[in-house]
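Retro notes
What went well: the complex prediction finally ran end to end.
Inputs used:
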Amino acid sequence: MRIAVLGTGVVGRTLARGLARVGHHVVIGTRDPESTLAAAETDQHGSVAFAAWLRENSGIGLATFADAAEAAELVVFASAGARAMDVLRAAGARNLEGKVLLDVSNPLDFTTGYPPTLFVKDTDSLAEQIQRAVPRARVVKALNTVSSYVMADPTAIDGGDHTVFVSSDDGDAAEAVTSLLHELGWKDVLTLGGLSTARGPEMYVGLWLRMLAAIGKPEFNVRVVR
Amino acid sequence: MRIAVLGTGVVGRTLARGLARVGHHVVIGTRDPESTLAAAETDQHGSVAFAAWLRENSGIGLATFADAAEAAELVVFASAGARAMDVLRAAGARNLEGKVLLDVSNPLDFTTGYPPTLFVKDTDSLAEQIQRAVPRARVVKALNTVSSYVMADPTAIDGGDHTVFVSSDDGDAAEAVTSLLHELGWKDVLTLGGLSTARGPEMYVGLWLRMLAAIGKPEFNVRVVR
């Protein structure tokens, strides 16, 4: 499948590599490919410069948000939650029309320090905000409850015996994402229901952040025992 | 140990019975024992009248919030979160002084329908509000992430192979609660840190409520895979 991953950070890179690993044709979307390729900086996660990363992952493409989205059958929103509206505007509603839009982001607000708070929660969610911004896209929330390493390779912890959540108002889109999750190695996909159920996994991030501090590493997840 | 359980609803009853089962002397606290014993109603959970329940659980006592708290070494807050300040006022700050106060409640707001929202979250928590209301009690948050049946008997699902979270500013109080949790059958107790970390397990309830709807029964929990 032709997949666009919107976001050049650690989440976008890790997911892009994971999706390419299982056989998809992946293009990463960015605001300005030239600047992205020229950037030499190592970010706070110790990432290598994007151009060097891209050379190591030669099967993956780079394009503008709009070009990546237009050419894709499925689009992954993998930028910072706070940038969602900007990135979607750049991608273009027309390029997302009728397509599955997998939102893996979180509405993190770092303006008051660490741990971050959520800029939308409880009575609304970022997934719903995204759906309202691009009403003709078929938004699915998933994977926001784990670190990018776990997103792309769940088998890295406990053989993959843990849970990922799916929320969408579009049953076919939820099924398409569920298939993609199985391809990545996810064994337990728990479909919560309509997109408003994404409020649950987004609020869970409040617990995830405290577990991260207590456990001391991002390679963990929960298994729903039922 | 002499334990007071503040609350006569399904959570208070179930926890009281579980704590009595493992050998503790349990007294349930209520606003007015006479009214509680006179009440004939079956609540929305299909519970029997309290007097009938108490006859079936003859080892458990009933007293005013204040008398129950005064006589106890450890106090469990097991009423509705919205009633916390009222119940603590009735119990009396002096009767809670120096004692472990285990808060198993959630800040649920049902005023806008179902699923409920949280009346405090993200930048504060009900556990912290309780600690501020009774600064000389040693507040510990735990067990709010599971239904009462699971609280009192974790071995009922998957042999107890799942996780409970503990938050407190008082290390000794957290340890006392951890021991109590082990007595009830909890195997995996994850200490998150100071009481502000209770914001995490409280926000998780947003996910718990959506899982309840998707799974269709309250007998579930999460195991933290790390």
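What we learned: The domain at 2-215 of chain A is CATH 3.40.50.720 (Rossmann fold).
What to try next: split runs per interface for comparison.
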